[in-house]
Amino acid sequence: MSASINLFKYSDDFLSYPAGHVILRRGDPGNVMYVVQDGEVNLMLDDTVVETVGPGGVFGEMALIDKRPRNTTAVAKTDCRIVPIDEKRFLFMIEETPNFALDVMRILVGRIRSVMRPPDTP
After folding, report:
1. Strand locations in the chain, DSSP E?
2. Domain containing 76: what range?
3. pTM (2 decimals)?
């Protein structure tokens, strides 16, 4: 967990979901990203788990940033607590803790790289 995302570890404005609960669905509009405070969340494309996000991880950031529909479905793998981050809070975090933006970008880039092929080497 990065230091700036760790700031949400003790946040008291979390949402609680039981294992198996669908938190968001692919195609839904999105104006909030989430930080997993406790538990695990599966990110799914159709019926395939593409990533499991644990404490300190984020999901939903793409829809918050580009205002397009959700790209994946998020399902609570275990009972979990997640902290919602809307655009106002996101911008506040960037202003107060500039590394927060870099941490979110690193997570996003990691997801992009995981689905892209590495360049061919001679």
Report:
1. 15-17, 22-24, 32-38, 41-45, 48-53, 58-59, 73-76, 80-86
2. 5-115
3. 0.85
